[in-house]
Amino acid sequence: MPPRKKILFAAFASTPLVTHLAILEKAGYAVVAASTFAETVSALESSTSDFDMVVLGASIPNLIRRTLAEQSKRLHPHIPIVMMFSHLGEHDGSASAIVSVWDGPQALLETMAEIFNKQQKI
Fold first, then answer.
1. pLDDT tens digits, residue range 29-52?
2. Domains assigned to the chain
3. Among 11, 82, 72, 66, residue whose Cα is nearest residue 45
């Protein structure tokens, strides 16, 4: 059995954090949750941050989400970033993929699977 993919999931509101944490873990992912800017940066900077993907939730303000994406790219340029948005017009191109919260958790899982499948083909 291949090792579980390790995901850093950041959301600055407790309900989406807990909900997505449960959904991702049920789908078989190992998830590290971050609920603040400092926790997210600390996880990214950790010497054990062997994440396979970073997911930034819609509850993170746009400017902070962009800053976190830039930090992630600087530290781990090979790790894909998925950003969740409540309004897709907010996307600035700094993520590998975007997901609308209105499409539900299945859209996030499908997007993640698609990214991992593309990586395996490379």
1. 999 999 999 999 999 998 677 899
2. 6-105 (3.40.50.2300)
3. 72
Beta bridge mates, 9 = 33, 55
Specify the pTM: 0.90
91 contacts 78 by C-beta, under 8 angstroms: no
- Give the whole-angstrom CA distance, residue 93 versus residue 46: 26
Classified as helix, coil or strand, 8 is strand
**Cα separation of 53 and 77, whole Å?**
11
Helix or strand (DSSP H, E) at 33: strand 30-34
Contacts of 46 (CB under 8 A, 6+ apart): none
Contacts of 102 (CB under 8 A, 6+ apart): 86
> What's the count of helices (H) and strands (E) in the chain, helices before strands?
4, 5
* Token duo for residue 48: 């054990």
